[in-house]
Amino acid sequence: MGIHQARKRFGQNFLVDLSVIDQIVRVIDPNALDRVLEIGPGQAALTAPLLARLNHLTVIEIDRDLAQRLRNRFPDTQLTVLEADVLNVDFSPLGSSLRVVGNLPYNISSPLLFKLIDYADQIKDQHFMLQKEVVDRMVAVPGDPHYSRLSVMLQARYAMTRLFDVPPTAFEPPPKVVSAIVRMVPLPHDRLRPQDEGMFSALVARAFGQRRKMLRRSLGDWAPLVDWGFVGIAETARPEALSVAQFIALADYLLPQVKNQ
């Protein structure tokens, strides 16, 4: 097989810097018996060094040509290749204590991060390379200009650590943006959690849908239902000022009010 040309429609930028690859493998620190799932293995830049330390690895690859190259290169006793769009994959049959890794295409990073929330109970940790701007949003605190719906939804479910940045020169072809590595560890079962995940998600989406507006405006017809003094939040506050705990408290307060509307 000849040289594989990166495909724009799949958002392909292949990691080629060996020092960066080594650094990523070191922070993942896989053990032989770990159940590891790699998303978007591409040309096996991470796959090969991971397999050097693992008994078995499962990968999800959307590109048919790359999937076949992986099957040709590694025996199926070592590598299971799922040829699929990761956004359509059901992670449930893949087992528990999953360690998920990947250089995520920028065009699917946010929808994939939201999708993985539903499987957090069966995941041990996640190590992803993402656009630096996305990682900035993931780890942002209230008051930070990067604080967003993504920040709140992910921080309600994970402890996240930004590990290090990766320059465009580490890829072929080089992207126009800087990347960053983030570690995501699902929070334990006894974490602070909303009474209703759907209500929490809807509230956060509504609040940040008009992030420049005060909550009394961005929440629309829900705003008059809130006793702002009781929940301890100023109705003049903007969504980026609220902590995850405050969003949870507000969602719990609104749950019976919205149901009775």
UniProtKB/TrEMBL annotation:
<keyword id="KW-0489">Methyltransferase</keyword>
<keyword id="KW-0808">Transferase</keyword>
<feature type="binding site">
    <location>
        <position position="103"/>
    </location>
    <ligand>
        <name>S-adenosyl-L-methionine</name>
    </ligand>
</feature>
<dbReference type="InterPro" id="IPR011530">
    <property type="entry name" value="rRNA_adenine_dimethylase"/>
</dbReference>
<keyword id="KW-0963">Cytoplasm</keyword>
<dbReference type="InterPro" id="IPR029063">
    <property type="entry name" value="SAM-dependent_MTases_sf"/>
</dbReference>
<dbReference type="InterPro" id="IPR020596">
    <property type="entry name" value="rRNA_Ade_Mease_Trfase_CS"/>
</dbReference>
<keyword id="KW-0694">RNA-binding</keyword>
<feature type="binding site">
    <location>
        <position position="15"/>
    </location>
    <ligand>
        <name>S-adenosyl-L-methionine</name>
    </ligand>
</feature>
<dbReference type="InterPro" id="IPR023165">
    <property type="entry name" value="rRNA_Ade_diMease-like_C"/>
</dbReference>
<keyword id="KW-0698">rRNA processing</keyword>
<feature type="binding site">
    <location>
        <position position="13"/>
    </location>
    <ligand>
        <name>S-adenosyl-L-methionine</name>
    </ligand>
</feature>
<feature type="domain" description="Ribosomal RNA adenine methylase transferase N-terminal">
    <location>
        <begin position="20"/>
        <end position="188"/>
    </location>
</feature>
<comment type="similarity">
    <text>Belongs to the class I-like SAM-binding methyltransferase superfamily. rRNA adenine N(6)-methyltransferase family. RsmA subfamily.</text>
</comment>
<dbReference type="InterPro" id="IPR001737">
    <property type="entry name" value="KsgA/Erm"/>
</dbReference>
<dbReference type="Pfam" id="PF00398">
    <property type="entry name" value="RrnaAD"/>
</dbReference>
<protein>
    <recommendedName>
        <fullName>Ribosomal RNA small subunit methyltransferase A</fullName>
        <ecNumber>2.1.1.182</ecNumber>
    </recommendedName>
</protein>
<keyword id="KW-0949">S-adenosyl-L-methionine</keyword>
<dbReference type="InterPro" id="IPR020598">
    <property type="entry name" value="rRNA_Ade_methylase_Trfase_N"/>
</dbReference>
<feature type="binding site">
    <location>
        <position position="61"/>
    </location>
    <ligand>
        <name>S-adenosyl-L-methionine</name>
    </ligand>
</feature>
<comment type="function">
    <text>Specifically dimethylates two adjacent adenosines (A1518 and A1519) in the loop of a conserved hairpin near the 3'-end of 16S rRNA in the 30S particle. May play a critical role in biogenesis of 30S subunits.</text>
</comment>
<feature type="binding site">
    <location>
        <position position="85"/>
    </location>
    <ligand>
        <name>S-adenosyl-L-methionine</name>
    </ligand>
</feature>
<feature type="binding site">
    <location>
        <position position="40"/>
    </location>
    <ligand>
        <name>S-adenosyl-L-methionine</name>
    </ligand>
</feature>
